[in-house]
Amino acid sequence: MSGMEKPRNRRLFPHALDVANGRVDMTHGAGGRAMAQLVSEMFAAAFENEYLAQGNDMAVMAPPPGRLVMSTDGYVISPLFFPGGDIGSLAVHGTINDVAMSGAKPLYMSAGFIIEEGFPLADLKRIIEFMAGASRATGVPIVTGDTKVVERGKGDGVFIVTTGVGVLPEGLHISGDNIRPGDAILVSGSIGDHGIAILSKRENLEFETTLESDSAPLHDLVAHMVAAVPEVHCLRDPTRGGVAATLNELANQSDVGMALDEDALPIKPAVRGACELLGIDPLGVANEGKLLAFCPAGRAERLLEVMRSHPLGAESAIIGHVEEGQGRNLVRLRTSFGGDRVVEWLNGEQLPRIC
Amino acid sequence: MSGMEKPRNRRLFPHALDVANGRVDMTHGAGGRAMAQLVSEMFAAAFENEYLAQGNDMAVMAPPPGRLVMSTDGYVISPLFFPGGDIGSLAVHGTINDVAMSGAKPLYMSAGFIIEEGFPLADLKRIIEFMAGASRATGVPIVTGDTKVVERGKGDGVFIVTTGVGVLPEGLHISGDNIRPGDAILVSGSIGDHGIAILSKRENLEFETTLESDSAPLHDLVAHMVAAVPEVHCLRDPTRGGVAATLNELANQSDVGMALDEDALPIKPAVRGACELLGIDPLGVANEGKLLAFCPAGRAERLLEVMRSHPLGAESAIIGHVEEGQGRNLVRLRTSFGGDRVVEWLNGEQLPRIC
């Protein structure tokens, strides 16, 4: 996104983009004047910040005061607009969250767009504006970007890949291999909201619900958590594959077993009902504004208190613990009826393109 | 790309991926066990490095000793494999080059993949291995990544978005708005090779040529250049839109006019011939291993000497100069016949999906 940070250069671009009726065409990705106009008038105008205004194919920023953290995520969600969000704000939140799960403060983001020929400029503008709004609200500027266009039938509207970098203060060691026997397991709120909100809008699956995606940026919640309880061992946001996949992955990474208490899991009645209807397990459903936290048992009540005092953690709960001993790496669920079942790590058939 | 850096965990993944005959399916992007296996056995195995081995959704690196530089680029090139390269190594080179054009040393990369359902695992493995090879050869590790899968007909094989970060030493100010009247304009070698090599393989356009893409990482060349001539004002790689689009963009960014000397332009006979056949201007054709450099005229011979002493700059040439005075922002070409024409900034119709 280079070179043209001003709203419109009438000499270079004599005709305004027809945002109301226009569509993306192949010239918008081909490196010529049409692309420059799209970038200038839609992307650069919305994302405006001092780094993007440098107008180069890269951005230069001050040296970060600490260890560097980097994360990337692609977004291919369908539909592009959904209850509680859209692909643009989701791409901002999701990458901020991945950076934040290290305990780092997210500083900058990049955004790569892959747009299908024929995509309405008006929809692209909405996505860009939602994205710019999320960037402003989180204080994480989009400092550099790229736009590609593929022929009709070779893409699906818009895909976005965002990359975030952040800075990690000394003294924190928060990682998936750092979970210890005896740790408490906490979640920052109700699970499954995002996945069910998306499924409710799939063409082949429509059902009535007032559910909204929980898409939200978690960096401020994390900052409060690690300030109060720097002993946090691990943080992770249970996105694709939900809590079940995330806990199974972490159990393997840290070589521990985990036990969850079904009665402690915060699940909205609407999510529970939809999951029964669809025959899926809410533990396997994606979240986009929740995190799982692991900390020494003795610090769990304090961590819970801090999480609940934050707007994005008001419904936080202690949902289980890491078992003593090592080696089985299973995630077990003590059910409401006093039974005990293994939380399976599914193959992943049920929820395509959920993020 | 989290959690599974080891070659194969037989307990978690009892069945080996059938790389020879298998295809990507929707489960490979859905966050479950199938995705974990793909990431573990193909991506993490090939990209192996200490950062990826952290096994989290982000990577943590040492504090960079200087200003941070960040760039991102999407790759939607068709075909995926072409003479002189492939989408994987191109994605590494291209992003390294964008970072390097600031004068920075590239340090780390991320890679986001968007894969179409049905894509052969064998082709994916080839791409990953070319990418890993380019990463090793350049010394820039792929520290974090992401994989998404879209349904058949909603993508086109593989798209890749890479993001690079680097570190910029004090004392350099290399930027598109830093070109000054009187500057010399240099190019690091022959132009148009990449675009013509790609076009030669397009199904509707096949023609005979031995041309190969010039896809190459330019960071080492840049390091030599800025060490010898820190007064370099601007560097940019003329990719999409070629030299014509890049110079027009820079002329506007720095508010200057430029004059090129046609006889000085290094263009291979095969490129010249193909351009005549196709009715296109070599100045508008993409390059992936060349850079344009601007420096004070008095330093141009020294810069040329340094560039020519590097394997990737052996064919470097001084191709023109920045005109005295400001305000016209045109790029003019003095032709071999003594004429003078404006190098147009085309709209971008002629060369879709060239990178």
From TrEMBL, chains A, B:
GO biological process: protein maturation
InterPro entries found in the cross-reference section: HypE, PurM-like_C_dom, PurM-like_C_sf, PurM-like_N, PurM-like_N_sf
Domain PurM-like C-terminal: start-end pairs: 180-327
Domain PurM-like N-terminal intervals: 55-167
Pfam families for this protein: AIRS (PF00586), AIRS_C (PF02769)
Family classification: Belongs to the HypE family.
UniProt-recorded name of the protein: [NiFe] hydrogenase metallocenter assembly protein HypE
Species the sequence originates in: Caenispirillum salinarum AK4
